[in-house]
C-alpha cells in the first residue's frame, strides 16, 4: 500500500455527524443499514460523508493487520447483526 502523507490528500473530520431522522421517524424505528450515522469529512475544498459501517470495516482491517488489539468475535457478531454481514467480507492480503 502506498503511503500518502501529502496534507492535501488527507481528509479530516469536520466534527459533524448526521442521521436521516425523518426516515427514522416515518419508517417506525431504527434500521442500522438505513439509519446509520454519517460523518462529514473534508479534503481541501471537497466535503463528503463516510458511513459508520465503512468505519467499522476500516476498524476490522486494522484488527486484521494487527495494528490494534483484537476486539473479539462476540462484538463483531453484534455489529454484523446491526449493520450487515458484509463487515466480514473484508479480505486482507498480508503480502501487499
Topology:
Layout (H helix, E strand, L loop, with lengths): L11 E7 L2 H6 L5 H4 L2 E6 L2 E6 H13 L8 H11 L13
Antiparallel strand pairs: 1-2, 2-3
Describe this structure in words.
The protein has four helices and three strands. It has a three-stranded antiparallel beta sheet with strand order 1-2-3. It has one domain. It is 35% helix and 20% strand. The chain has 96 residues and is an alpha+beta fold. The longest helix is centred in the middle third of the chain and has 13 residues, at 52-64. Strand 2 (38-43) and strand 3 (46-51) form a beta hairpin. The protein has helices spanning 21-26, 32-35, 52-64, 73-83, and strands spanning 12-18, 38-43, 46-51.
Helical residues, percent: 25-40%
Mean pLDDT: 83
Largest sheet: 3 strands, antiparallel
Strands in their spatial order, largest beta sheet: 1-2-3
Distance between the termini: 6 Å
Poorly predicted tracts of residues: none
Shape: flat
Number of strands: 3
Strand content: 15-25%
Number of domains: 1
Number of helices: 4
Q: How many whole angstroms does the radius of gyration measure?
A: 16 Å
The helix/strand order is EHHEEHH
Structural class label: alpha+beta
In short:
The protein has one domain (7-89).
Keywords:
single chain; 96 residues; alpha+beta; three-stranded antiparallel beta sheet; 4 helices; 3 strands
Amino acid at each position: 500500500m502506498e503511503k500518502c502523507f501529502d496534507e492535501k490528500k488527507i481528509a479530516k473530520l469536520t466534527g459533524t455527524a448526521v442521521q436521516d431522522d425523518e426516515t427514522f421517524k416515518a419508517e417506525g424505528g431504527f434500521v442500522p443499514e438505513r439509519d446509520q450515522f454519517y460523518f462529514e469529512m473534508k479534503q481541501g475544498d471537497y466535503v463528503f460523508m463516510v458511513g459508520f459501517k465503512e468505519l467499522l470495516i476500516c476498524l476490522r482491517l486494522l484488527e486484521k493487520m494487527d495494528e490494534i488489539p483484537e476486539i473479539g468475535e462476540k462484538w463483531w457478531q453484534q455489529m454484523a447483526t446491526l449493520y450487515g454481514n458484509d463487515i466480514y467480507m473484508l479480505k486482507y492480503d498480508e503480502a501487499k
